[in-house]
Amino acid sequence: MTGGNSDLATIVDARVVAGHDGSAELILVLLHGNGITGAVALDAASAFEVIAHCNAEHIEDLVGCSWRSILDGCGPSAGGGRTTRAQSG
Amino acid sequence: MLDLVFRNGFVVDGTGAPGFHADVGVKDGLISEIGQIGGEAREVINAEDRVVAPGFIDPQTHFDVQLLWDGAARPCLQHGVTTIVPGNCSLSLAPLREKDRPAVVGMFQKIEEMPPEAFTEGFEWTWEDFAGYRAAIEPGLSLNVAPLVGHSVLRVWVMGEDAQRRASTHEEIGAMQEVLRDCLKAGAVGLSTSVVDVDALDQPVPCRYAQSAELEALAAVLGEFGRMLQIVPEFYNVDLTVARVDQLATLSRRYGIPTTFSPVFDEARSPDDVPYILERVAEQFALGAKVWPQMQTRPIDISFSLLRPSLFFLSLPSWMKILRRPFEAKMAALQDSEVVDWMSRDAGPDGGERVLGSLIVRDGGRAPASLVGRQLRDIAMERGQNCARALITLSVEYELDIAFLSENRGHDSSERIGTFLANPLVHIGASDGGAHLATFSTYGDTGYLFSEFVRKSGQLTLENAVRKITAEPAEIWGLRGRGRLAPGLAADIVMFDPKTIARAEERAVFDVPGGGLRYVRDGIGVDAVVVNGEVAYQGGSYTGSKSGVICAL
């Protein structure tokens, strides 16, 4: 799963948290090919796109999915502004 | 003769020193003396059994628009706040050319959740440059304002539509420096920027297209004035946040400027994150940088209705399937007994008691007053339903326009938050006052500081809590002559009851021009607030005084 290819980022944890703007957000923890982990915060629209692309029934189903394949499947919006929080504070 | 005397108060002067019983005299907008004051005064306020402290300072707000029709930035004064910093997160209302207003208004609407009418009916656009904006708001101010210039609007001013397309040229950077210089001369307290915000179309705001050379050049101008750089970092990612700490520290040392980043949140599932950030902040302070992390006092709630699918229901797959349908299909499904049975089963063997029982019905939607503020489990019991069915039937009865609140879903461990707030390197702020109007209340963090962390947990002394929101922010932001009670300093004063000061329950009001909704919290236990020597709030009422100033100079 970790491999040596940085394209092989994989979701290792997924959880819903309270976003700064009062909405629920999805935090995905990614394990990159170089062994580094990092978090990505998704607003509802982006999260639903990711969930659909992964054919996930439960939030736990996201674990193990390839982040690269998600980006390729969801289009530019999943790799751009909407993968950050929706609003400021 | 003095203008005003607070008589027999418990003076907590903002320095953190132990409080003491004394009178506080005011003349010509300044504190004239502290001690036993004889003689007459035009106005005497009995401060017995009350704390007399410097006015509170809120360093992270978005009142830029509201100040144009409400110079008191209601309800700030009710919470003892006498100075606010708007213009955060890269967005200010100046400098802004007429042709660029629609784009920037869209960014503000995204953050502040104001109706379009707020920008057309609430005020008249009379300015383009920063001095013009200052002239538009200053005569009506009931509290002090230390405004930031937004990096995004600065970019739009120089680059037009290209501000949201590309990096700047050398010449454009030079032009931005000149404009920033003009803004700082006109009273701006610093520059705000962001690496995460998006506009109304979910596109990165203009400042996110800036390369490091641009930020360096702007920091150099801030260095000429010793002014603040505020940034919104990738706060959901601890490693990126720490990288931003390092970046800010470099700018701080190189140009001799204070910097601050907000927000910093604590999350139970990643308890090492905030300590990791604070450790790096401490290292950078030790190396001579000023990098102030801002942390809010209040916990974070999640609010939603069934009108739009919320990730709150992600743990309930059957609910998600229904709630993502279009309105008509969703309403039909929620009235289908088989579907409701299925959703009820999916909510758990307890009928959703654990997941949904503590939800609170909010006002602001179509919920009647008899339901507002009540927990779903109580309503369900009254109706003879389980929690899942109660949520569904209530929503259907009000055509889904009934909002629910799940309280304390993040940043909610008082034990941990209190420890962080007491840390000398943590700057209490990040309130977001004036933003997210239609989602939750961003007011009352000062009262919550005292009720939760002074009275309840005791993690901060009264004197330290006052210092953290008065003298400390005044020093961090360079607000000279404010933040302490001492002769010769500005008479920004709050008198409050230390036994009761708190924030009230959230409530919906429709006082935004255009009838826009916002959620507010009233203050509790704040008796009187003085701004530059004039009583601005007393006995639960705003006096209408206009003694506020732009106080960054």
Number of helices of chain A: 3
Low-confidence stretches of chain A: 76-89
- Integer average pLDDT of chain A: 75
Span from first to last CA of chain A? 36 Å
The number of distinct β-strands of chain B equals: 23
Q: What percent of residues of chain A adopt helix (DSSP H or I)?
A: 10-25%
What spatial form of chain B do the alpha-carbon principal axes imply? Answer: globular
Strand arrangement, largest sheet of chain A? 1-2-3
Description:
The complex is a heterodimer of chains A (about 90) and B (about 550). Helix content of chain A is about 25%, strand content about 25%. With about 90 residues, chain A is an alpha+beta fold. Chain B has about 550 residues and is an alpha/beta fold. Chain B has helices spanning about 100-110, 130-135, 150-160, 170-185, 210-225, 240-255, 275-285, 315-325, 325-335, 335-345, 355, 375-385, 385-395, 415-420, 445-455, 460-470, 470-475, and strands at about 1-10, 20-25, 30-35, 40-45, 50-55, 55-60, 80-85, 145, 150, 190-195, 230, 260, 290-295, 300-305, 360, 405-410, 425-430, 495, 500-510, 515-525, 525-530, 535-540, 540. In chain B, the strands form five sheets. In chain B, strands 1, 2, 3, 4, 5, 18, 21, 22 and 23 form a nine-stranded mixed beta sheet that branches. Chain B has a six-stranded parallel beta sheet with strand order 9-10-11-12-13-17, sandwiched between helices. The mean pLDDT of chain B is about 95. The interface of A and B includes residues 24, 57 and 87 of A.
